[in-house]
Every structure is written in C-alpha cells, then in structure tokens.
C-alpha cells in the first residue's frame, strides 16, 4: 500500500516507526488538509503486520468516527475484522468499563485535545499500549505542553512548503482594517471562557447584530461572489441569523451546529458537496476533521485567541481540489493581526514542550 502514500506521508511513517524504537508515545504534526487520516490508516496497517494485534482509534467527535472507519476500510481493515476499533472519546468514556480487551496501540486523532481528563485515563489504564497522537496544531491556549503524555514530537513540512509543492491550495486573504468599527468591537471583548478564549455570551451580544451580519454578507458578495464556502460563527443564534441573511439575498445557506440531528447534518453536508447549498454556517462543527476539498472560501466571523482554532478553520479552505485555483479567506474579525497569515511558520516544538503559549501571545500584535 506504500504506493498510495504521498512522499511526505511515507517519510512521516518511516520517521514514526524509527521514533517508536526509542519512545512509546509519539505525537505527529501535519497541517490540516495534508492527509493525516490516510497516514494514520497506513500506520495502523503496518503496525498490525508487525507485533500488534489490536488497535483503538479515538476520535474527538462522533461525526469523525465514520470518516476514519471509511478510510481505514479502504486500507483493507474492515470493522468486522475486530482488530481495529474506531470510537469517539465520549463513547469510550461511557463504555470503557465493559471493554475487556487491551489495545496494543491507541491512536488519538486531533490529539491537541489529549490533555483533557477523558484522554488522560487511557494512559493510566493502558500504560503498556503505544500511543500515537495526530494533530495539525500541537498547542494549547493555556500554554501547557504535552510532555507528560507524549515523549516526542515529529513535525512535517510547513504550510508554505505544502502550498509550494502543490499539495495545499494557494490562498488570497482579505481582512478588516485595524481602525475599523468591527476591530474596535472585537477589541472591546473583555470576558474569557473557561478555556481562556473569548466568552461566547459576550461575543454573541457584541457581534450578533444586524449591522455586523450585513457587513459579513457584503464581504462575501464582494470577495467570493458565486463561490462555495464555510462561515465560522460565534454561537448557534449567530449562525442561524447569518444563514437567514445570506439566504434572503439569494445565497443558499444553512446553519449547522451541535443540535442539528446527525442524519440532517449529513444531508446538508451532501447538499453542500453537490452544490445545492452554497454556504455552510457553523459553530465549531467543521473546525476539525471535516473533509470537503471544494471549499472555495472561508469566512471567519468568530474572534478567537486560540492559534489552533484559527489554523483549523482556515485549513478547511486549503485542501486541494481539481477545479479550485485558490481559496479566498475572508477575515472579518482581524485574526491575521494576532496570528499572522496561515502560511506563517510556528515553533511547534516550543509549544509541544510548553515553552510557548499557543495563542495571541506567541507573536507581537502588528497593526
């Protein structure tokens, strides 16, 4: 199956197996859109060929389980085989006590979440199992590193290198001015949530207003007319209001959030893939693991202090597809002033080790 891996994926696989000679628990960093799930499946396949007999793949959310299962089965490992189990962390937390098998390898998808208590238990309960963490962004807003869970970090090429070699889409980037009304509204946000990011309630009060939403629509109309895209909203109410506004202007849009039933969500995403729906407005649903390569624009309408959140969101637009020349990134909340452009290099090793915070403080704010 090596022939179905791209050169950089093959290189990452070799480096991982070399690293496993010395360390049990390894984290792998690759930018969003570069095929982490395919690499994951190829690694699991090789692991089972060797000493391993049972692998657990743990996803951050239920929607990602089907996607991973599908990729794993394409690599010749079916669900019925029993050697590979893909599950969400929520399902595993509820059912772990009833599981009598012990895994030889636990793969954590979107492993920047691994510091949560629900994941830490896996280290306590299964100390003998190897652990592999996969993420685009090995950083946390609270500045904690990952060294108490993972022994080492393997990093891939930079976003700029992936774009240069044609594996990721090039992009155009527009943003609000430093002295604009929108930027002043965002600068007025003072409250923080439990995760250290802006408080959703305050963001919603400040940004979920008709004038702000009209400006969002004007930006899409001006910079992404006729294109398909994803909008990141502050709250469920904000997402629904944006979708209603865009649809009222003849731009077929739907809002998707955690309350949208799974079957309906799948139907809406399929409509988007087919082009029946032009815009998906969402609240954190498509920040991670959402594979839809023909996203032609991404609109950022949700302020954040999290570098991980920023890169996961813009990364949805950088996946290549046959008819896409480049992606339009519309930053209505001034995130580039905090984090730089998506192709900026980051010191992932420093963040992994906890020497640098994965947020706005990791770069001087430039006006």
UniProtKB/TrEMBL annotation:
Q: Does the keyword ATP-binding apply?
A: yes
Domain (Helicase ATP-binding) spans 17-156
Q: Which UniProt keywords apply?
A: ATP-binding, Helicase, Hydrolase, Nucleotide-binding
* The Helicase C-terminal domain, residue ranges: 212-367
Annotated GO molecular function terms are: ATP binding; DNA binding; helicase activity; hydrolase activity
Name any GO cellular component annotation: cytosol
Q: Which Pfam families match?
A: Helicase_C, ResIII
UniProt protein name: DEAD/DEAH box helicase
According to its UniProt entry, this protein's organism is Phocaeicola dorei
């Amino acid at each position: 199956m090596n022939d179905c891996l791209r050169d950089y994926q093959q290189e990452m696989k070799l480096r991982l197996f070399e690293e496993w000679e010395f360390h049990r628990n390894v984290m792998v960093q690759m930018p969003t859109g570069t095929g982490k799930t395919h690499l994951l499946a190829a690694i699991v396949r090789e692991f089972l060929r060797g000493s391993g007999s049972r692998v657990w793949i743990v996803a951050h959310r239920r929607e990602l389980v089907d996607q991973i299962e599908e990729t794993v089965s394409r690599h010749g490992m079916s669900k019925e085989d029993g050697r590979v189990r893909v599950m969400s962390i929520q399902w595993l937390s509820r059912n772990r006590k009833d599981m009598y098998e012990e895994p030889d390898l636990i793969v954590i998808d979107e492993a920047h979440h691994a510091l949560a208590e629900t994941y830490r238990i896996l280290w306590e309960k299964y100390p003998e199992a190897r652990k592999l963490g996969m993420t685009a962004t090995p950083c946390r807003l609270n500045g904690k590193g990952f060294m108490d869970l993972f022994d080492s970090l393997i990093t891939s090429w930079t976003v700029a290198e992936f774009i240069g070699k044609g594996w990721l889409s090039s992009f155009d980037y527009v943003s609000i001015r430093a002295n604009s009304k929108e930027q002043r509204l965002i600068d007025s946000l003072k409250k923080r949530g439990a995760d250290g990011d802006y408080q959703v309630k305050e963001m919603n009060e400040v940004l979920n207003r008709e004038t702000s939403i009209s400006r969002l629509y004007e930006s899409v109309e001006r910079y992404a007319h006729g294109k398909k895209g994803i909008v990141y909203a502050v709250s469920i109410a904000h997402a629904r209001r944006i979708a209603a506004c865009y649809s009222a202007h003849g731009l077929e849009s739907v809002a998707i959030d955690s309350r949208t039933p799974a079957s309906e969500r799948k139907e809406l995403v399929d409509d988007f893939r087919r082009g029946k729906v032009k815009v998906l407005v969402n609240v954190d649903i498509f920040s991670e693991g959402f594979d839809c390569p023909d996203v032609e624009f991404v609109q950022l309408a949700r302020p954040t202090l999290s570098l991980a959140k920023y890169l996961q969101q813009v990364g949805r637009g950088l996946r290549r597809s046959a008819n896409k020349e480049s992606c339009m990134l519309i930053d209505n909340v001034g995130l580039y002033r905090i984090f730089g452009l998506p192709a900026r290099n980051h010191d992932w090793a420093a963040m992994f080790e906890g020497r640098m915070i994965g947020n706005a403080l990791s770069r001087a704010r430039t006006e």
